[in-house]
């Protein structure tokens, strides 16, 4: 937030003249750097940090398999059916289920011990993956090539159910950070969470493509069942600190209490606006979720696409490690918006050429920046939301933020398949801009990306100039 919004500086009454813009910026940076030097860091010699790392390792094991299943079934269905519509439907199923379960999962996190919630989540995923493996082994290979096959979609639903069950952990983890760490360390701990998510994407991206390319879904499912079983045993051996031995909302009624959660969110100035911004951002982001695999696979083999995502995920790890090392800005609310501007700008540029290099370069910037947005939002919520309500608020935020994405995923796939692809193949778009933009299926998808990114820039620019941004920034600073 600019100091223009706080013109009074009583601690310096001897300087009545307002400083220049450059002077204010330099002073702010100097103070921020000095504060960063004085802030504590995470050290493995601390028993709390060691326990947290053990929990992160367990989360990593489960996340790798959940993401691998999700990526693999998307790759597999596209390669078997060659249907953009089918891959978009898989994304839509995931997003609808995430929206529908977010508040309920958050209530479970608040009303039960974190370790118990994580164990039950892993058990459910394990059972569903085992059922999927049985179905896969008993189904003729030709069935998977028919996008209208009932068995195919039962298979998809079983697998996505296992993935969705893992969402409980993503809600529980930021509340664990709140319980274990002082607010001066939470941004760095959130960076470590981002690092783990990056590692899971790295491993997932490499192995999902290779596994699908070599054996279809067989080894994906065998590994999923085996690693989930290992993760369950490992979690049982972790000794949990006293602060996590009890439910955050112990003594309260175990009902979901959506009304009370909304009241908490509304009581925080600017919080509703932040959640709505994230929802609209995800509305646009759902376009990439639905179409990116089809776009990438139109340029390279599934093995190469998986390896590309493996390399890109290493950059996500780098972003998380940078946060762990340096922390975040003194105003993470502003950081969320500035990073979004950078991400949308890159997304306007990379689809302009039918080039693997442009695609990979654009995604590289996106992957480095992503942990900053996630860690910033978590840090804001951890500071301004009461601990006993955080599970439900994180779940509510997840549901609302992603509520728009299913609409995008379900609509954009047929819209792309039946309008934008013909438009850029032999339609008016191919005649108007085909000379420099290119023509064909992948250029139809690229045009969707460019239009979406321009809308994202407009949305973020509006948010950065709004009063809600200033209100939430002030509340964070005063909390």
UniProtKB/TrEMBL annotation:
Q: Provide this UniProt record's keywords sorted from A to Z.
A: Cell membrane, Membrane, Transmembrane, Transmembrane helix
The GO terms describing molecular function are: transmembrane transporter activity
- Membrane disposition: Multi-pass membrane protein
Localization (cell): Cell membrane
> What residue ranges are annotated as transmembrane?
55-78, 84-105, 117-138, 150-168, 189-211, 217-235, 268-292, 304-323, 335-350, 356-373, 402-424, 444-465
Where is this protein primarily located? membrane
| Highest taxon of source | Bacteria
Q: Give me the stretches of Basic and acidic residues compositional bias.
A: 1-17
Domain Major facilitator superfamily (MFS) profile residues, every copy: 47-468
Gene Ontology CC terms, in alphabetical order = plasma membrane
Recorded protein name is: MFS transporter
What organism, scientifically named, is this protein from?
Answer: Antribacter soli
Its ancestry begins with: Bacteria, Bacillati, Actinomycetota, Actinomycetes, Micrococcales
């Amino acid at each position: 937030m600019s100091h223009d919004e706080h013109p009074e500086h009583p601690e310096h009454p001897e300087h009545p003249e307002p400083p220049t813009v450059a002077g204010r910026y330099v002073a702010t940076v100097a103070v921020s750097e000095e504060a960063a030097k004085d802030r504590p860091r995470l050290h493995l010699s601390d028993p709390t940090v060691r326990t947290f790392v053990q929990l992160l390792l367990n989360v990593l094991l489960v996340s790798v398999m959940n993401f691998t299943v999700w990526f693999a079934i998307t790759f597999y269905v596209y390669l078997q059916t060659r249907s953009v519509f089918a891959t978009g439907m898989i994304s839509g199923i995931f997003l609808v289920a995430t929206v529908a379960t977010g508040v309920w999962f958050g209530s479970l996190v608040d009303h039960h011990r974190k370790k118990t919630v994580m164990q039950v989540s892993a058990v459910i995923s394990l059972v569903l993956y085992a059922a999927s493996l049985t179905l896969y082994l008993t189904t003729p290979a030709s069935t998977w090539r028919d996008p209208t096959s009932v068995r195919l979609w039962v298979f998809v639903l079983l697998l996505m159910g296992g993935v969705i069950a893992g969402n409980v952990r993503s809600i529980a983890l930021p509340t664990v950070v709140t319980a274990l760490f002082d607010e001066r360390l939470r941004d760095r701990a959130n960076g470590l969470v981002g690092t783990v998510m990056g590692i899971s994407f790295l491993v997932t991206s490499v192995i999902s493509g290779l596994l699908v390319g070599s054996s279809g879904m067989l080894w994906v499912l065998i590994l999923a069942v085996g690693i989930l079983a290992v993760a369950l045993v490992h979690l049982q051996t972790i000794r949990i600190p006293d602060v996590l031995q009890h439910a955050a909302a112990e003594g309260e009624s175990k009902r979901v209490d959506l009304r009370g959660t909304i009241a908490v969110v509304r009581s925080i100035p600017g919080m509703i606006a932040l959640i709505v911004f994230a929802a609209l951002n995800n509305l646009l982001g759902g376009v990439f979720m639905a179409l990116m695999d089809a776009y990438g696979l139109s340029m390279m083999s599934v093995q190469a696409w998986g390896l590309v995502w493996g390399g890109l995920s290493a950059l996500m790890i780098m972003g998380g490690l940078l946060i762990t090392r340096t922390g975040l800005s003194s105003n993470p609310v502003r950081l969320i918006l500035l990073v979004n501007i950078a991400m949308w700008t890159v997304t306007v540029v990379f689809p302009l050429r039918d080039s693997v290099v442009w695609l990979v370069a654009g995604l590289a910037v996106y992957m480095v920046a992503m942990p900053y947005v996630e860690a910033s939002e978590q840090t804001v919520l951890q500071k301004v939301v009461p601990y006993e309500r955080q599970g439900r608020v994180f779940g509510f935020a997840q549901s609302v933020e992603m509520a728009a994405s299913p609409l995008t995923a379900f609509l954009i796939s047929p819209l792309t398949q039946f309008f934008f692809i013909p438009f850029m193949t032999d339609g008016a778009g191919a005649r108007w801009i085909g000379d420099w933009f290119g023509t064909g299926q992948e250029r139809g998808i690229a045009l969707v990306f460019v239009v979406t990114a321009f809308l994202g820039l407009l949305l973020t620019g509006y948010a950065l100039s709004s009063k809600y941004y200033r209100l939430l920034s002030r509340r964070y600073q005063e909390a």
